[in-house]
Amino acid sequence: MDNFVILTGCSGGGKSTLLAELARRGLATVEEPGRRIVRHQQAISGRALPWIDLAAFAQEAIRLGREDRRRMAGHGGRVFFDRSLIDATSALAIATGDQSEIEALRTDGRYHHRVFAVAPWPEIFVEDQERRHDFAAAVEEYERLGALYADPGYTWTIIPKASIAERADFVLRTLEN
C-alpha cells in the first residue's frame, strides 16, 4: 500500500524514537512487532523470543505484521511502521532456511516504494531487556535487510544521523518530493 511507510535498518539506530516523534506530530504509527512480542513473552515466561526460539518469534512477528496491516488498511493517510513483514520474514528465513515467505512478499504485502533505514550508529546503540544482541549483530542485520529490500524493488533511503526532529523532518520532506 502506497501509504504504508517502513522505518527499518539497524537495531538500536533510533527507529522507535523516530516513530514516537512522528506520532507526536499527529501521524499514524505502528510499533515494532518484535518489541511487543518480547514484552508479552517475558510477561508470560514464553519461549517465542529471538534468543530462545527465533523461528517461533519470527512467525509471531509475521502474524502481528499481517494483523497490523489489516488494522491500518482503512486509514486514509500515511502510516509509519517500525519494521515490516519483510523484516519478519527475513528473521524466519534465517531461523529455518525457508525463503518462501520472502518470495510471497514480492507481490503481496507491498509498502510504499521508499523505505527509510537507520544506519548503524554505535554512539546510540544500547542492549536492553528487549534487545539482547550486540552491535556487530545489529550491523549484520542492517546489511542483510538492505540487500533484501533492494531485491523486491524498494528504494532504500538512509536517514541521516541527526537530531530526532531533523530525522523526522527528513522523512516527511523526502516523502513530499
Automatic annotation (TrEMBL):
InterPro entries: NadR/Ttd14_AAA_dom, P-loop_NTPase
NadR/Ttd14 AAA domain boundaries: 5-167
Pfam family membership, one: AAA_28
SUPFAM superfamilies: P-loop containing nucleoside triphosphate hydrolases (SSF52540)
Domain of life: Bacteria
Protein name: ATPase
